[in-house]
Design a protein that fits this description.
CATH superfamily of the largest domain: Cupredoxins -  blue copper proteins
Number of helices: 4
Helix content: 25-40%
Protein name: Phytocyanin domain-containing protein
Membrane topology: Lipid-anchor; GPI-anchor
Number of strands: 8
Distance between the termini: 54 Å
Structural class: alpha/beta
Subcellular location: Cell membrane
CATH class of the largest domain: Mainly Beta
GO molecular function: electron transfer activity
Oligomer: single chain
InterPro entries: Cupredoxin (IPR008972), ENL_dom (IPR041846), Phytocyanin-like (IPR039391), Phytocyanin_dom (IPR003245)
Number of domains: 2
Strand content: 15-25%
CATH architecture of the largest domain: Sandwich
Length: 150
């Protein structure tokens, strides 16, 4: 038989033991969820410039972008902008008319919120025509619970 004092001691131990486990579990889950999405510096260390050391096309093909990842465009504020354009046609023509999104703060973060292609060009049409543009193809979101088919 457990006395009243022993019961309180047992409850204190139980509470202490499981609250520590819960804190660890919540911390681990927060760490895992923060690892789900990645940030990519467009153009690598060169940033969003006219003549990067590696072409944007080559850079983008080396990367694996997934839903919820972010692109970071680093450039001189006031000297350039980044435009998200509607599709391949606007991308190929470097059309700066009617962009889907315009970024102009010099350190622009763009969240990839869906699978499929995203088209980005320089807001300076001449720079775009000289190659300052990139297509990013986004895969479905990372899912750590997914299983491979047999």
């Amino acid at each position: 038989m457990i006395t009243m004092g022993e019961e309180k001691h047992y409850c204190d131990y139980f509470y202490y033991y499981f609250s520590r486990k819960m804190v660890f579990l919540v911390s681990a889950l927060m760490l895992l969820s923060s690892c789900d999405a990645l940030e990519f510096d467009v153009g690598g260390s060169d940033g969003w410039v006219l003549n990067p050391s590696e072409s944007y096309e080559h850079w983008a093909t080396r990367m694996r972008f997934q839903v919820n990842d972010s692109l970071v465009f680093r450039y001189d504020e006031g000297h350039d902008t980044v435009l998200e354009v509607k599709g391949r046609d606007d991308y190929e023509k470097c059309s700066t008319q009617n962009p889907v999104n315009k970024m102009d703060d010099g350190n622009s973060v763009f969240k990839l919120d869906r699978p499929g292609p995203f088209y980005f060009i320089s807001g300076n049409r001449e720079c775009c025509l000289k190659g300052q543009k990139v297509v990013v193809v986004v895969l479905a979101a990372r899912n750590e619970n997914s299983t491979l088919p047999p």
